[in-house]
């Protein structure tokens, strides 16, 4: 299985989320659509098979990885992307799909999913990456892990706390995987847009 991971040096975090031209965003959106019927079937099968075991190992099947690579290649040709832009788009495409799959598969009500997504969209990404890295004890975003503070925990809680959603181990794994994947998607998008 192919795991999708993105590392971005901490020094670039502040500039990574600057406003980008609409054309760049539209070009990057190319990787989210335009799939053939056969490719859509591979994506549909991945969505339908996604469960808690998948959350513990969020990886693409070889078939899905091939679909993503082919769509990125098609978009690169269509939009004349550089090698750097194509690489950033490839780093975006997997997490973009996975974040949506994870959110849709979460065993919570649609209104709770909407609240979770709204909390995330309203959060300061740089602060969230710093806080989540400390709370999770990870350097997955290029941030050196440090001792988590009460402010870090409050920042993460402001995103993941949703009325009626327990934060026991299993659901915490869903949230952690979705949050990590969403942040990786956004970092890759920012990298693409900065090119």
Profile the largest sheet. Answer: 2 strands, antiparallel
- End-to-end C-alpha gap: 29 Å
Give the helices and strands as they follow along the chain: EHHHHEHHHHHH
Broad shape = globular
Q: From the alpha-carbon coordinates, what is the Rg to the nearest angstrom?
A: 17 Å
Number of helices: 10
Query: Are there runs of 5+ residues with pLDDT below 50, and where?
Result: 1-23
Structural class: mainly alpha
Into which percentage range does the β-strand content fall? under 5%
Mean pLDDT: 82
Instruction: Tell me the strand order in the biggest sheet.
Output: 1-2
- Helix proportion: 55-70%
Number of structurally distinct domains: 1
Number of strands: 2
Please provide a written account of the structure:
The chain is mainly α and 195 residues long. The chain has one domain (2-9, 21-194). Helix content is 68%, strand content 2%. The chain is built from ten helices and two strands, in the order βααααβαααααα. A two-stranded antiparallel ribbon has the order 1-2. The longest helix is centred in the last third of the chain and has 26 residues, at 169-194. The chain starts with a strand and ends with a helix.
């Amino acid at each position: 299985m192919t795991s999708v991971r993105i590392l971005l040096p901490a020094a670039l975090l502040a500039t990574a989320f600057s406003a980008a031209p609409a054309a760049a965003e539209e070009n990057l959106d190319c990787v989210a659509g335009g799939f053939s019927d056969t490719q859509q079937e591979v994506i549909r099968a991945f969505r339908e098979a996604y469960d808690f075991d998948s959350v513990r190992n969020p990886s693409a099947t070889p078939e899905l990885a091939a679909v993503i690579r082919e769509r990125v290649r098609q978009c690169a040709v269509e939009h004349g992307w550089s090698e750097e832009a194509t690489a950033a788009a490839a780093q975006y495409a997997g997490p973009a799909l996975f974040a949506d799959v994870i959110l849709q598969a979460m065993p919570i009500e649609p209104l709770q999913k909407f609240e979770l997504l709204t909390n995330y969209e309203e959060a300061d990404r740089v602060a969230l990456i710093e806080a989540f890295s400390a709370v999770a004890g990870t350097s997955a975003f290029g941030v050196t892990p440090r001792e988590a503070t009460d402010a870090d925990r409050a920042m993460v809680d402001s995103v993941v706390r949703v009325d009626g959603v327990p934060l026991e181990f299993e659901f915490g794994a869903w949230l952690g995987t979705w949050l990590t994947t969403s942040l990786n998607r956004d970092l890759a998008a920012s990298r693409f847009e900065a090119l």
